[in-house]
Amino acid sequence: MDERAALRQLAATLPHAGDDAAVVDDTAITTDMLHETTDFPAGTTRYTAGWRSVAASLSDLAAVGANPTAAVAAYADTAFEADALSDFIDGAQAVCAAVDAKYVGGDLDTHSEFTVATTAIGAVDESVDRAGATPGDRVVVTGGFGRSAAALRYFEREAFDAANDRFQFTPRVDAGRALAGSATAMMDSSDGLARSLHQLAEASDCGFTIDRAAVPIADALSEVADDSEDRWEAAVHFGEDFELVATVPAVEIDTVRAASPTPLTEIGRVVEREAGVTVDGEPLADRGYTHG
Q1: Full-prediction pTM beyond 0.85?
Q2: What is the mean pLDDT of residues 261-277?
């Protein structure tokens, strides 16, 4: 089975297994695992690996409206090298500092390939899950889509400086906190915008109508895309961008925009389930990144 089928199985005993982070009382916690063969293209520096690994977990906290406090990582490699380990820690500390959290350690082990498992915790005042979108709500997103797709193309061209720069991202913690008091549903777009919309639709038992022209696309993708269709495909279906996708009551749009240091873009609205997930009136395919 793939990752989504596995999550559906887990949901029978763990109802919130599909949410980005678990919330227990006023604490949010999340964990992620990344592997060299699937998550770190050839040319990825250990600094970028440290940044991106920890950032993935911090993004999960942002997606439930949490304020990150600390992160740890289990670092495994075929052998330990002093410079590689130091660079990894530097990257992990840097991304934590970017969101006012602390990197506080972890574990070391040997493995058949470079692998990182990260855990992050944060404090929650008002948490948001994926199940509350209501017809009439507006769909908002942070940032632009396609930065990681652009990074991969730079890796393939062995333009490693450009690739590593675009592979690092700042978790949208500030926007998550700004949205937490108003959003009816929220998640990060690690599996791609299209798949995220389908996941939200499934969790909230709703549909979405999206305005293609309104979807923000990262400048980095425009540097490498072949044409407008290639640009759209990479932006919407590739995934690994870690932007936030949220639904907000129409009357709250101005409030959340004013509260969020990260710009928010309205790209559509929530509709009844029967309408499905569409872009400009046409079905949006449920394609994106899937583990397994």
Answers
A1: yes
A2: 98
